[in-house]
Amino acid sequence: MKSRTMIIRTLSIVLALGSVTLYVQQPHAADREKLLSDPGIYATFAAFKLDPEWWKLDKGVRDTAAAAVKEVVRKHNEQIAIDTYLLRGLSEYADVLIRVHATDMLYNQAFLVDLMGTTFGAHLMNTSTFNGMTKKANYVPNFPDETKAALKTPVDPGAKPYIIVIPIRKDAAWWLLNPEARTRLMKEHTDAAIPYLKTVKRKLYHSNGLDDFDFITYFETDHLADFNNLILALQQVKENQHNRRFGNPTLLGTVHSLDEILEVFTR
Question: What residues are labeled active site?
Answer without folding.
Answer: 202
